[in-house]
Amino acid sequence: MISFMRLGECSLSKSEILNKLLSNSQQYHDTFVHRDMQCGDNPRIISNGLAELTWEMGQLYEASLSLSEEDRSRQQLQHLPKLCAQLLIDGFPLELVDGDASNIPLRWVSDVLTQLHELVSPNNKIRVITVFGVQSTGKSTLLNTMFGVKFAVSSGRCTRGAFMLLIRVSEDMKASLNCDFLVIIDTEGLKSPELAQLDDSHEHDNELATLVVGLSDITIINIAMENSTDMKDILQIVVHAFLRMKEVGKKPRCQFVHQNVSDVSAHDKNLRDRKLLLQQLNEMTQAAAKMERKEENKSFTDVMDYDPDTGNWYIPGLWNGIPPMAPVNVGYSEAVQELKKNPEGFRKCMSVFCMKTILSYI
């Protein structure tokens, strides 16, 4: 694999140089688009990249469904779900929830997953892993480190809505994981300052949490603060989501990831924290059960497959010092790798879906 990037300011076009390197001496071919080629300076009207193009594909497809079946424009767009399904197999993400409009394009997502089911059959058993937590707590970075993917990362609200990514399981891991694919779902941060001024911001967080918990076999709850008001608010949202899942007969596994814990070897202190966390979860479960009129649920373990000893992970900070000059903390990658290899959390999860099963939960 060869990467080509520009450092600083340069008048030369990277794409044009690559085209010259790839072309032979007898014939030049514009493999990559550059500004000096014909129509190369046209403004980008649809999108700035392939990921954004998939967002527009869903809008175009759903808009075409309002046309008659004989309409030529509708017929020309009928191949889009299969095209997007192939992009999923190739490693590109699919937008499940439009973060700007808080909308799920149900018909688009359903048709894409149906096409995906047909493309990978009969090897279509999957496990779904989801992460959510407060904004800017390193959720996308955690998934990128754990699975080698490339979800967008930055400070602030870099993820809007929810995105799913398909990872093919290697042959030597299929037996232990008992699945053919992993579906990774990255969500936007809860308690976003941008949405805090809206009247329905709390409902937005509850709906997003309920959706991703309902889809997942394993829910990773990312916590970067301890004993704070924000943490309690997040736990309350989590409990409500899990309580609703029990009503439909689903009891996913839960893993709490505590980030920026400097001394992960302080086992006694962490043990006290785990007991306090479980106590808070039990109290919130009772309060949520009373609100939902499901008062038979007395503890968090009644609604969630959770073990305080194996369901909590303590990960040090990503940086050794203050970025941007600080080096990456090797301990972060090592701790995330241990989480990934956790047999209790990732290899003994009971439920296994096929592609079409996800549709019943959306």
TrEMBL record:
Superkingdom of the source species: Eukaryota
User: What would you give as a GO molecular function for this chain, any one?
Assistant: GTP binding
InterPro entries registered for this protein in UniProt = G_VLIG_dom (IPR030383), P-loop_NTPase (IPR027417), VLIG_GTPase (IPR052986)
Per UniProt, residues of the VLIG-type G domain are 123-362
User: Which PANTHER family is this protein grouped with?
Assistant: GTP-BINDING (PTHR14819), UP-REGULATOR OF CELL PROLIFERATION-LIKE (PTHR14819:SF9)
Q: What is this protein called?
A: VLIG-type G domain-containing protein
Species whose genome carries this gene: Knipowitschia caucasica
